[in-house]
Amino acid sequence: MTYQPSPADHARSRFAASLTRPFHFGRWLVTPQQVLFGLTLLLCLTPWGSPPLALALGLTVALVFGNPFPAQSKQYTSKLLQWSVIGLGFGMNAKTALQASQEGLLFTVASIISTLTLGYFVGRWLGVSRRTSHLIASGTAICGGSAIAAVGPVVKASEEEMSVALGTVFVLNAIALFLFPVVGEALNMSQNQFGLWAAIAIHDTSSVVGAASHYGNEALQIATTVKLARALWIIPVALGTAVLFKTPGTKVKLPYFILGFIAAMLLVSYVPVLKPVAPLLVGLAKLGLTATLFLIGAGLSTKVLKAVGAKPFIQGVLLWVFISVVSLWVILHTVA
Fold first, then answer.
1. Would you say residue 283 lies in a domain?
2. Source organism's superkingdom (predicted)?
3. pTM, entire model
4. Could you say which DSSP state residue 23 is in?
């Protein structure tokens, strides 16, 4: 029997076509889709904007109207995030950051080893391919998309395997950004406790900073410092992966922006003349982070969601629940 499009299908087609129909805006030729994208991004950067709202609006734009700039969004997201993280360094105190990183070291080492080990066995149990399983475990253990991007070439992952791992981690990041502050407030967690928990249990730096900034400034400082210290583990994990997967001579991409964050933190801590401009730089960094989360949300599509599949997503959820619950219990019982 031949499929006949329903009136709803025709309406959706007309709506999609109207969004991409160009019109003149002054000297520019633009589409309604592009205008909606730009206006929504500007809304995120107003005083009413926030990291969770930016992510939600980005998701809405992608899933309802479509992203008119997919290539540009992907291109600028990582750079904007890196510069934003460097800018946040001007709001940190070196002594406080050192203390936070030392406090989080034991949690970091224990959680990375346990998550990678559990990820191996869960992946085998679910029948997830070895490369995809390792990518998801690495992203959960260290720092989400950055870890997957670093480890992917080492295991010679295909584009589909990379997309599955990145899609899994991204969806869980989006959930964590909204869920963690609610849980923290419900459990009456201190700023110190929440910052440490967010840094350990949320995948990507963008969502860690977004959740922590929503919780408070002290939580933001602790979460950012511990998360960036954690991100340095990309290097030994990638090198260990090269040995495990027998891919010698692989070049590991170093997260150089972390050095920029440290330099900014040291400058504002020990060069007094910079302190008056530090709040401006931190404010710009927070706007950059908000824009980053909007672009990340706008990068999600139904194609990415369909590519994930049930088994890899279940693996990602199980690992995320494990690291979230165990680290939360330990932090609540050992950290003031």
1. yes
2. Bacteria
3. 0.78
4. E
